[in-house]
Specification:
The complex is a heterodimer. Chain A is of the alpha+beta class. Chain A is built from 8 helices and 7 strands, in the order H-H-H-H-H-E-E-E-E-E-E-H-H-H-E. Chain A has helices at about 1-35, 40-50, 60-75, 80-95, 105-120, 245-265, 275-300, 305-335; strands spanning about 125, 130-135, 140-160, 160-180, 195-205, 210-220, 335-345. In chain A, strand 3 and strand 4 (about 160-180) form a beta hairpin. The relative contact order of chain A is 0.10. Chain B contains 1 helix and 10 strands; from the N terminus they run H-E-E-E-E-E-E-E-E-E-E. The chains are: A alpha+beta, B mainly beta. The interface of A and B includes residues 242, 247, 254 and 260 of A.
Chain lengths: ~350, ~210
């Protein structure tokens, strides 16, 4: 018996929100039917129940706004204009996007609603819809509203970073769509992160102010980028200067040739009294001088032009390759697609 | 034996020539101051003079080259020695075996002529040339050595020992190479009737090598 009771409680608790929603929606539906049949006196109590603090069931914001709107419409038909304006204002205050369809409501109702709009000042921005936008060809769209003529300033900013960018600063009245090209105040593509769209307005009729704010997340969809080539390591480059050892070896080579020439001229054919010793002396002297001059030149001006040129060529090839990579990456970045999604709060900026 | 050497040489040269290799032609005019010394048992006879000539080299790729050389000139005898003309035509194949070492095989025909007669020599040489670069690669030291295993001279028996040695420098500027070299050829002939003939040819040479294509 006890388990059954417990199960019943659990089931009741589970379905109660649905039932509550259903009750409000059901009552709102009944009121709507009465209104359509012009049975205003029967619709009014139902609508008043919904907006009453004593109504035991859950009422969503949309349902409450709908109830206020139909209360205003019914009271207008009943000739209670002041009360109608009051309820219309209640609807507008809760949802500045509230409006009456001219095809469904009478001119008197529309006029009363207009009066309510003039006496109530509010600005709002619709929650951002998820979107995939190529900033080269399309724009991110936001919808804002001012209940009557007002000077409106719309600013977009990264949460916690950077200067806001002003998207609109003008007088407006009613609903307006504004677009964003994906760029920030510095004219650079907005980096991924969380952004806020802030709307601030000052009524041209009453002088009162209002503001609204909506958050959204921005992500980038971009093709993978290529890495540039790393700096050339030391071992990838040829030595550009002679080492002191190499310069000293030049002396040894020159003296070696000199010694060999003298050896050939003397030791190899001593029994023939030498052989054109003068020629050997010339070569020996030339070789010795060459070795010493090479040593001196390389010690003071030890640059190796061939290696310098080869290294410059390698640097140029690397720079050219990196320029190509950067160009391709720039093309890919330029083709970045913005992914916009609504966000609940401030979160993390870019 | 000679046929085997020829076949082996052809194999080396053939294997070293890559198909379709780039050919390059160089010519090198040269001028030499040559001294010829001969001791045939009557003291050393010495003659000295300039000769002119040139070497044309055709390269078959990076490793193989064939060179033809020709030179000639007059050697003026010292006191009591006849003047003589000398001329030579030779061919030589070379293979690069190491970056700094070239092995060479060649043959040459040389003639000495005086107003009394003419003597021709046939020379076969096997040797190598080593080049070692000075820092910067524009200057090379050159070291040559060759044995002359087959030498025949008209009117003489072949020498017991014959060799050639040379050393010098090469200065390279773009496609031009200037070479200065001291060389010596030595021939020791077998003794006949108690007399041993010795002969040598030494030269100081200046060579300008031009790469044509």
């Amino acid at each position: 018996m006890r388990p059954l009771a417990l199960a019943a409680i659990v089931v009741t608790a589970t379905i109660s929100p649905l039932t509550a929603q259903g009750s409000t929606a059901e009552l709102l539906g009944q009121a709507h039917e009465f209104y359509e049949r012009l049975e205003v006196e029967r619709a009014l109590p139902l609508l008043r129940q919904i907006v009453s603090p004593n109504w035991p069931f859950e009422v969503t914001q949309e349902q409450r706004v709908e109830a206020y709107k139909y209360l205003g419409a019914c009271l207008t038909l009943a000739g209670k204009r002041d009360s109608a304006v009051l309820y219309f204002r209640a609807a507008i205050e809760r949802d500045p996007f509230t409006e009456l369809d001219p095809n469904l409501f009478t001119p008197a109702q529309l006029a009363t609603f207009g009066e309510a709009q003039r006496r109530t000042f509010a600005v709002a921005v619709r929650p951002v819809e998820p979107a995939r936008v190529d900033p080269r060809t399309a724009r991110v769209t936001f919808t804002i509203v001012a209940t009557h003529a007002a000077l409106v300033d719309v600013k977009l900013s990264a949460v916690g970073a950077g200067q806001p960018r002003s998207l609109v600063q003008s007088t407006m009245d009613g609903v307006r769509e504004i677009t964003w090209d994906g760029l920030l105040a510095d004219r650079r593509l907005a980096p991924p992160g969380r952004y806020a769209l802030a709307v601030a307005g000052r009524s041209r009729l009453t002088g009162t102010s209002d503001s609204a704010r909506v958050y959204f997340d921005l992500r980038h969809e971009v093709a993978p980028l290529e890495d540039t080539l790393p700096d050339l390591e030391r071992r990838a480059l040829l030595p550009e200067r002679m080492s002191p050892e190499a310069a000293r070896r030049d002396v040894a080579k020159g003296l070696g040739v000199a010694a060999a020439a003298l050896l050939i001229a003397g030791a190899a054919n001593g029994d023939l009294g030498g052989g054109e010793r003068g020629g050997a002396d010339v070569v020996a002297a030339t070789a010795a001088v060459t070795g010493i001059v090479a040593f001196l030149v390389h010690r003071h001006h030890g640059a190796i032009p061939e290696n310098v040129a080869a290294n410059a060529r390698r640097h140029a090839e690397r720079d050219s390759a990196n320029a190509s990579v950067r160009g391709r990456n720039a093309d890919r970045i330029a083709a970045t697609v913005l992914l916009v999604s609504p966000a609940a709060g401030e979160g993390t900026g870019p | 034996m000679r046929a085997a050497a020829v076949i082996a040489g052809a194999g080396i040269l053939g294997g070293a020539a890559p198909a379709g290799a780039q050919r390059a032609l160089t010519v090198a005019p040269l001028v030499s101051l040559v001294e010829h010394r001969v001791d045939a048992g009557f003291g050393v006879e010495r003659s000295l003079g300039p000769i002119l000539g040139g070497v044309g080299t055709l390269r078959f790729g990076p490793r193989l080259a064939v060179a033809v050389r020709a030179f000639g000139g007059s050697l003026f005898g010292s006191t009591g020695v006849l003047d003589r003309d000398v001329g030579e035509l030779g061919v030589e194949a070379s293979v690069v075996t190491l970056p700094w070492l070239v092995l060479q095989a060649g043959a040459a025909r040389r003639a000495y002529s005086t107003k009394l007669g003419r003597q021709t020599w046939t020379l076969v040489s096997l040797g190598g040339t080593a080049r070692m670069a000075f820092a910067g690669d524009a200057i090379h030291s050159v070291w040559r050595a060759a044995l002359l295993p087959a030498v025949s001279a008209s009117g003489l028996r072949g020498p017991d020992m014959a060799f050639r040695a040379a050393t010098g420098l090469e200065y390279r500027i773009r496609t031009t190479t200037l070479g200065v070299e001291y060389s010596l050829e030595r021939y020791d002939f077998p003794a006949e009737a108690g007399v041993r003939r010795l002969e040598q040819l030494s030269a100081l040479s200046l060579r300008l090598e031009l790469r044509l294509r």
